[in-house]
């Protein structure tokens, strides 16, 4: 799976985490600090983007702000309802969020770990967004094993097709040989041998030809993304020629190409 897909999964998970934690975090802060809860957390949210001038009790929450407030006010506020396990999840998700913000690489293990930690934390705060993470985790697993399942299915279908080719060619070859012997008797031996070798060669060629690849993929030669069975870019390339630059004049195809390293008089 491409790294961009992993980044997309992490982005979605952090968005769901934000939506799921806001009611819990604000509710717990109000329960402890009462009406002064925004003043209590201002020091944790130093950046201006978190503050709304029009309303003192409004906070522009994101995943980092929520996790930071939970971590800094754990002993005073959040340990009343959450266990040390959830505190470790908060610290872990802060690290994952910082890596995501700096465009760090996420492989499958890191991505699934992020989704699972988000799911566990939302489940601990009894958020309704847990089912979204469950669906996303299944989607990630399907993407991981999808290619393997498709490859296994393709191998099974290929094996069936191979047996079909062998069966049909063998039957046709035996039918022709038997017909020749029935018509000509022992004189048909040379033709029978020729037909046997011919059908064997056709069967061999049919089984050794690579099946065409369809779908979006990368051309192994020019490394461009293609959709058709053959690469349209490679077909346009003629051996012994090169693609002219936009500032070059088109030359007569019957004349030799000029050397690009030579100085133009």
Write out key terms for the chains shown.
8 helices; mainly alpha; disordered C terminus; two-stranded antiparallel sheet; 265 residues; 2 domains
Give a concise summary:
This protein has 265 residues and is mainly α. The chain folds into two domains: 3-128, no CATH class; 143-208.
Give an overview of the whole structure.
- Strand 1 (217-218) and strand 2 form a beta hairpin.
- The protein folds into two domains: 3-128, no CATH class; 143-208.
- The protein contains eight helices and two strands; from the N terminus they run H-H-H-H-H-H-H-E-E-H.
- The chain is mainly α and 265 residues long.
- The chain has helices spanning 3-33, 37-41, 63-72, 84-101, 108-124, 130-184, 189-208, 232-236; strands at residues 217-218, 225-226.
- The two termini are 52 Å apart.
- Strands 1-2 form a two-stranded antiparallel ribbon.
Secondary-structure map:
Elements: H1 3-33, H2 37-41, H3 63-72, H4 84-101, H5 108-124, H6 130-184, H7 189-208, E1 217-218, E2 225-226, H8 232-236
Antiparallel strand pairs: 1-2
Helix pairs in contact: 1-3, 1-5, 1-6, 3-4, 4-5, 5-6, 6-7
Mean pLDDT: 76
Please count the helical segments: 8
Shape: rod-shaped
- N-to-C order of helices and strands: HHHHHHHEEH
Structural class: mainly alpha
**Strand percent estimate:** under 5%
Distance between the termini: 52 Å
Oligomer: single chain
Rounded to an integer in angstroms, the radius of gyration calculated over CA atoms is 34 Å
Overall tally of structural domains: 2
Tally of extended strands? 2
